[in-house]
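Record type: monomer structure entry
Structure origin: computed from sequence
Chain ID: A
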Amino acid sequence: MSTLVERCDLAPDLSISRVVNGLWQVADMERQGGKLDIASAAAAMESYIDAGFTTFDMADHYGSAEEIAGCQVTQHGNGRDAQLLTKWVPKPGPITRADVRAAVERAIDRMRTQRIDLMQYHVWSFADPAWLDALFWLQELKDEGLVRQLGVTNFDTAHLRVAVTSGIQIVSNQVSFSVIDQRAAGGMTGLCLQYGIKLLAYGTVAGGFLTERWLGRAQPELAALDTWSRMKYWRFIRSAGGWDRFQSVLRALDRIAAKHAVSIANVACRYILEQPAVCGIIIGARLGERDHLEENRRLFRFSLDDASCNEIRAAISGLQRIPGDCGDEYRKPPFLTASGDLSHHIDSLPAPYQSAGDARGRRRVLTGTRWEEVAGFSRAIRRGDRILISGTTATQRDRAIGGNDPAAQTHFVIDKIEGALQSLGGSLEDVVRTRVYVRNLGDWEPVARAHGERFRDIFPANTLVQAELVGDEYLVEIEAEAIVDDEAGDSESLVQPPSGANL
């Protein structure tokens, strides 16, 4: 039976297959130090393209994935329409305009193409404003023609809002989204629908756990799992309430699969494909080993009726919500990664800003805005266990951030406060008082809600008042005070770095 593969427009000039072939498996296949045969792996891509699955997702750290795609383009492409999506995942720390250009040109060289169809950007810490600098510079390269479209990966709702309201032309956000992990179904979906951003969902089969193979099986031991994906999603299952609750979901999916004469994986994937804002799902491809093409074709031969959707919703309502927002598993505990920490990815999170001491025993940080130089003040000063943070607006270098969105401005202001605290050995959890000034009293609620989102477990003393702010572009200004616990750690978070892994 011939089945047309559904397609979706990420942008007017970029149409993708709704099942995207995920090449993170290349890194897993090469993790013992070997390297796939580039030519053979490139030839294996042909069967996907022939079947209509023409879109491939990779990253700079997915082993040889970009080189394999480049070989396919030159040796097997023959003008056929394949879409090559990649990611740039820089190490934490300072980023220059030259670094951004080098990353894009390196990907273009590896993939042997004239421009990147979709460059997706990952951030390790939003407290370091280098992430916004990098996006503005990526936007410049898009305008230059080296990048067709810009996307992000593992962004949370607040910082996707900051980016788009600041004028970055983002078409997609790649995030974990499955029947186990429903974080993207809330505020993220609403923001994407508001701004016309598409979701690319990964983890939809949870590393193979959402299949008949695991139905009725005893919980496996972590040490017995043989792929990074299974190690990672084993942690997701635990976070969602454990193996027994997971089995309840599997049983519901199995009943629906029997009703539609498809597989459990088909039902799990189709449910996410039918969610608002989802453009495509990413399913891992182990090139040269197995392709699951017939399995994936079945996704486009059925749809889920209301009764099936209701049964799925009832089943997943028994799960615990995965903590935080989209992407938080890479930025804060619990780290739901293959290793259970960030050791497969980074070795440290450096302080966002440099600090300097004086003869009086004080340390201070500057954030490089023009206001600090003009008015002669520090962003923050630490004396003993106290950190005082000046009134802070949504400014990065000479740019106003967040446009006319008071919530976006508030989130970026709190990011700057967090970065200053980290640079002086503190954290957002050490804040004991905030003072919030709004230009327009009508903005109090989105500002207060953004403040509440960031401080919901900290509960500092707080005052919010209306005030005339310096600079017509600013809607909110915040100052803060913190008291650092003597036993708190330093400004860097260190982990032990083995070889790189999939993200």
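Annotation 1: The chain is about 35% helix and 20% strand.
Annotation 2: The first helix runs from residue 24 to 29.
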